[in-house]
Amino acid sequence: MERIGRGLLDRVMETVATVREDVAAAHRRDPAATDDRIILLTSPGLHAIWTYRAAHALWKRGAKLPAMVLAQGARSVTGVEIHPGATIGRRFFIDHGMGVVIGETAEVGDDVMLYHGVTLGGRSMERVKRHPTVEDEVTIGAGARVIGPVTIGHGAQIGANAVVVKDVPALATAVGVPAEVRAGAAHPEEQVDPAMWI
Ligand SMILES: CC(C)(COP(=O)(O)OP(=O)(O)OC[C@H]1O[C@@H](n2cnc3c(N)ncnc32)[C@H](O)[C@@H]1OP(=O)(O)O)[C@@H](O)C(=O)NCCC(=O)NCCS
């Protein structure tokens, strides 16, 4: 009994710590977000990721129906649709929420930020890995579509409304339709090897 109580307490402490770091990430990334209580109560992106985490835990335990129902509930409230089978890292932040779609086999690293209208979508009807892999510290601009099992490398930036259908190297900036890596690194202190450009 004592062990169960301690396990539950550990789980609650872990959840509180996660919520705190998510709120801190939102605070850091959104200049309009100045009050933690307002962020906590009104950020649809955070509400979507918290619901996703619960749905993902259910999905991993094989409770697929309740996981999908929870995910669709979050979609109705926040406008963000994250498939419970997707894998998403820590301090993930979606600014504005609305219109984001993240597919079942998408893999998203830590410290990733999306704006509204981003799709991490599939291009195949096969039941295979068909959605993007987004590495740590990537930012994806409003309305961008990243489709297929492409990899967006660590620290890359995807411009608003880009359509990405090929890998983007680490630290690069890709814009346009179809997206191309533009000259100059996302982080000027880092150099991107031009041979790696798409
Ligand atoms: C792609 C992005 C990250 C580049 O930022 P940056 O490195 O500061 O680049 P700059 O603004 O200096 O622009 C550099 C060039 O790329 C072009 N460019 C910038 N963003 C672009 C985009 N989304 N699509 C097409 N071209 C773009 C600029 O016109 C400029 O072209 P030029 O060199 O021919 O003049 C940024 O423009 C962007 O799209 N961020 C997403 C922001 C967003 O979604 N905000 C939503 C808030 S609600």
Q: What report would you give on this structure?
A:
This protein is α/β, with parallel strands linked by helices. The protein has one domain (2-197): Hexapeptide repeat proteins (UDP N-Acetylglucosamine Acyltransferase, domain 1), CATH 2.160.10. The chain has helices spanning 2-29, 36-42, 44-60, 64-78; strands spanning 80-82, 87-88, 93-95, 100-102, 107-108, 113-115, 119-121, 133-134, 139-140, 145-147, 151-152, 157-158, 163-164, 173-175, 180-181. It has a six-stranded mixed beta sheet with strand order 3-6-9-12-14-15. It has a five-stranded parallel beta sheet with strand order 1-4-7-10-13. Strands 2-5-8-11 form a four-stranded parallel beta sheet, with no helix packed on it. Strand 14 (173-175) and strand 15 form a beta hairpin. The radius of gyration is 17 Å and the shape is globular. Bound molecules: coenzyme A.
Which features would summarize this protein structure in a list?
198 residues, alpha/beta, UDP N-Acetylglucosamine Acyltransferase, domain 1, six-stranded mixed sheet, five-stranded parallel sheet, globular, binds coenzyme A
Total helices: the number is 4
CATH fold assignment:
UDP N-Acetylglucosamine Acyltransferase, domain 1
Strand arrangement within the widest β-sheet reads 3-6-9-12-14-15
Nearest-angstrom radius of gyration? 17 Å
CATH superfamily: Hexapeptide repeat proteins
Unreliable stretches: 191-198
Proper CATH architecture:
3 Solenoid
Which molecules are bound in this entry? coenzyme A
- The residue-averaged pLDDT reads 92
Secondary structure: number of strands: 15
The shape, in one word, is globular
Report the order of strands and helices: HHHHEEEEEEEEEEEEEEE
β-sheet strand percentage: 15-25%
CATH class value = Mainly Beta
**CA distance, first residue to last residue:** 58 Å
Question: In this structure, how is the largest beta sheet organized?
Answer: 6 strands, mixed
- SSE class: alpha/beta
The amount of helix comes to 25-40%
When the domains are counted, the total is: 1
